[in-house]
From TrEMBL:
Transmembrane stretches, start-end: 20-40, 157-178, 185-205, 211-232
Keywords for this protein: Elongation factor, Membrane, Protein biosynthesis, Transmembrane, Transmembrane helix
Keyword Protein biosynthesis: yes
UniProt name for this protein: Elongation factor-1 alpha
MF terms in GO: translation elongation factor activity
Species this protein is from: Pseudidiomarina aestuarii
Length: 254
């Protein structure tokens, strides 16, 4: 006699578990790559490895004691040029960043050799085209952080993309029968609430640096909820069935 098929992760067939597991593993690797990318971009905004409040402030509010070029050369772009090349560019910025000095003092040669390979017209997105002197000049002024256009572009990408990812992670987790209903509701809702807090904090940090803390809180809470849903889902699919049969219905509000 066929046994009853219960609506929970532990009781699903191997094919469906393989589908869920494949998705969860790929998304987890993607999440780790996103963390690495954050460390290599925002995490180097203050010139030091590791994400800090200063990194968030410099990324969105800006480091208004220096130009954007200086801050990048001391931060995420530091490995891309030698100490002498960085010093030469910074001295050129302090001297007024004129086009004449750019052409005659060897600055253009540095940009051609070290910068334009990535910062060119074909790069697209928010990457500036340093083959155009005007765009270099715009970044030789006081650093005011991310532009409004850049924030709008990145915000809508993150809102759609991350919400879509958590929809499926949450759907899989909703079939976990071993989590109390109140906790399950909180954990499933957390990513959406803190995603809105995180994105809103980008814009607020643009206005005042103290809001940078909310960026860290929002991102950290999303990571915690993702980790919890991932671990519980994998446990109930592959470990729990080896311990006992699960007859509970995960979707019944008891």
């Amino acid at each position: 006699m066929a046994r009853n098929h219960n609506l929970n992760l532990a009781s699903q067939g191997t094919s469906l578990k393989a589908l869920f597991t494949g998705y969860l593993v790929v998304v987890a690797v993607g999440y780790l790559m996103a963390i690495v990318q954050i460390q290599l971009t925002h995490g180097l905004a203050d010139g030091k490895y590791g994400l800090s409040v200063d990194d968030i402030v410099y990324s969105y509010y800006g480091n208004r004691t220096n130009s954007l070029l200086e801050n990048k050369l001391h931060g995420s772009m530091k490995p891309m040029a030698t100490d002498d090349e960085r010093e030469k560019i910074i001295s050129w910025v302090h001297a007024g960043a004129t086009e004449e000095a750019y052409e005659n003092d060897g600055i253009r040669q540095i940009f051609d050799a070290k910068c334009i390979i990535c910062h060119n017209a074909e790069a697209g997105g928010a990457v500036p085209d340093y083959s155009d002197f005007k765009q270099i000049k715009e970044r030789a002024v006081v650093d005011t952080g991310a532009s409004i256009a850049s924030l709008a572009r990145v915000s809508h990408i993150h809102l759609f993309g991350i919400a879509f990812i958590f929809m499926f992670v949450g759907l899989i987790f909703s079939l976990a029968a071993g989590v109390p209903k109140p906790l399950k509701v909180i954990v499933i809702s957390m990513p959406y609430i803190f995603l809105l807090i995180d994105i809103s904090a980008w814009w607020l940090t643009k206005l005042h640096p103290n809001f940078a803390w909310f960026v860290i809180i929002g991102g950290g809470a999303m990571a915690l909820s993702f980790a919890f849903m991932w671990v519980v889902s994998m446990y109930e699919m592959w470990i729990l069935p080896r311990i006992r049969e699960d007859n509970r219905d995960a979707l019944l509000d008891e």
